[in-house]
Amino acid sequence: MMKEMVLYSSSEEQTRQLARRFASLLRGGEIVFLRGPIGAGKTVFVKGVAQALGMKSSPTSASFSLMKRYQKGKTTLFHIDLFRLTEGEVFNLGFEEMLEDEKSIILAEWPDPLAHILPADRLEMDFALDGADKRRITLRAGGAVSRVLAEELCR
Q1: Regions in the chain scoring below 70 on pLDDT
Q2: How do residues 75-99 score in pLDDT, each as one tens digit?
Q3: Which of 42, 61, 113, 152 has the largest CB neighbor count within 10 A?
Q4: Is the Cα torsion angle 82, 39, 48, 45 positive or negative in sign?
Q5: Record: fold of 3-153
Q6: What is the pTM of this model?
Q7: How do the domains of the chain map onto residue ranges?
Q8: How far is CA 61 from CA 9, 29, 53, 131, 142, in A?
C-alpha cells in the first residue's frame, strides 16, 4: 500500500518554491506522476523543477509533443504529457528510451496510460483545486526511492 502525505500551496509562486525544493532532492532515477485537472499547477511545478535543475529551455505543456527531453550536464529530465491518450496509443511511442538511463528524471502529466509500462516505485502527486489559488497536493509513494523523496519534501 502506498504511503500518503499532503502538501498545500496558496499561489503559483509557492508551487514554484515547492518545485525548487523538490528538485534539490532529486538524485536521478526518480519517476513522478502528476495528476489533476487543467489549471491545477502540474506544468507550473514541472517548470519550477526544470528551472531549479538549470535546464536552459522552460517546459511548456507537452500535450502536443507528448514527450520532451531536457539536458543539463549529466542530468536528463523527461517531461511527458499524455492528455487524452490511452495505454494502447502510448505502447509503441518509444518511452522505453526514458528507462535506458537509470539516472534520468521522469515527470509525467496525465500519466495513467504509462502506469503499467513504468516501474511501480514512483511518486504520485495529485494536484487538487482547493479554492481560488489554493492547491492541495496529495503525495503517494510507491516504493523505497519515492517514499524517501516524499518524506524529505514534506519536512
Answers
A1: 1-2, 60-65, 91-94
A2: 999 988 888 777 777 766 667 777 7
A3: 42
A4: negative
A5: Rossmann fold (3.40.50)
A6: 0.90
A7: 3-153
A8: 20, 22, 18, 23, 25
